[in-house]
């Protein structure tokens, strides 16, 4: 199959490289010239484990190309994927579809012969209808079918997720196009990955429903963590106790600083807006969004409490900035709101992240960056673990105690056990796991 992938970001680049690895001929089209130049010279514009090797192998095999020329890329393609961003629209929280609409027009101008156009971007229900209309208006003679194929990969495990997905969802109502999409995913089909063919509108809804459900699950356990803190329970044990029930499942039950990232916050909010537009409100999701927004700043207050209620002129060292480990993605990371609230309360903030500091510099003002956990801990009044990178899972507390002004750890990911940290003379604070004396 000849595939054009429009948008070479986290989703487009990983999907394009994986499709090439399946043996398809893939051209990734990207608006950002600098990104294309870097990709052509073998440099990855994002941090994603395994991606550089995959791109290198498939580029050398001649199956993966990069261009800024959408017309040339699309002209000979059997399938064109749209994988551009759909961020929150400024001011109202609806998904901003302007990039999708522009691309639909550009593709329509350039296609030749029967072409399946597939939205891989996360888009509100009915967007496939809009894309189809735009394309027909632009090129009334074009032989196209518009399908929906939402992507479920997770940053940090994106290649594994793409190659071994829990399911592939394809929203399509045309037999010719269904045959094309079956061929595109044939290698996964042979690996017995479940492929769900459904209507286009249903596929669009599945993606938002999945993300909103996961966001709700995280928010639920975060509220249970708060309850544990005032009642003396242990949220990790509650999570295990409920997660072993197959109807609930153990994943996405880690209490923490609230969900962030490029998807959950914007998708949950977009789903709320869709529900409101259609007069079918999603009150659970509305509440999830609002609880999660408040939670990030509540984590700032937790740090202040751990520092005896005052962090003015104190130095807080933040471990981990990205919204989760194994990515350099800072979009909607909880660290942003947490650091903002620390600044507001008068603290000096230092930070270290294994991959996210370049992206963080563009977003966070007045932060001093260091090259390791130990460098930022020097003279600090409090260490706050925000993102659970592996590098922070076996910290040398003896060394840290010698470096810090006050040995205090606020562990917002429940990475450590209280006794092991306290044994080194640290004051330890975590999420939903109070000590016998009520300390959280
Ligand atoms: P991204 O911002 O990393 O990438 C989008 C890319 O599209 C950018 O590189 C941008 O320059 C490019 N682009 C924009 N307009 C273009 C045009 N006209 N022609 C060519 N390229 C253009 O975004 P992403 O994280 O890859 O997300 C893309 C979509 O996939 C979104 O709808 C998102 O919700 C969805 N999604 C993301 C993830 C994830 O983990 N990031 C997972 C599943 C679904």
How would you characterize the overall build of this protein?
This protein has 440 residues and is α/β, with parallel strands linked by helices. It folds into 2 domains: 2-198, Rossmann fold; 226-429, NAD(P)-binding Rossmann-like Domain (Rossmann fold, 3-Layer(aba) Sandwich). 45% of the residues lie in helices and 14% in strands. Strands 3-2-1-4-5-6 form a 6-stranded parallel beta sheet, sandwiched between helices. It has a 6-stranded parallel beta sheet with strand order 11-10-9-12-13-14. Helix 1 crosses helix 3 (51-60), helix 10 crosses helix 12 (264-277) and helix 10 packs parallel to helix 13 (283-306). The longest helix is centred in the middle third of the chain and has 32 residues, at 200-231. The model has no long low-confidence stretch (mean pLDDT 97). Residues 6-12, 29-32, 35, 70, 83-86, 99, 102-103, 121-122, 151, 153, 155, 262-263 line the site of nicotinamide-adenine-dinucleotide (NAD).
Could you give the topology of this structure?
Elements lengths: L1 E5 L3 H12 L3 E5 L3 H8 L10 H10 L3 E4 L2 H6 L3 E4 L15 H13 L4 E5 L7 H12 L5 E5 L9 H6 L4 E4 L3 H10 L1 H5 L4 E4 L1 H32 L3 H9 L20 H14 L5 H24 L8 E5 L14 H11 L3 E5 L4 H7 L3 E3 L3 H5 L4 E4 L11 H7 L4 E4 L6 H5 L4 E3 L11
Parallel strand pairs: 1-2, 1-4, 2-3, 4-5, 5-6, 7-8, 9-10, 9-12, 10-11, 12-13, 13-14
Nicotinamide-adenine-dinucleotide binds next to helix 1 and helix 5.
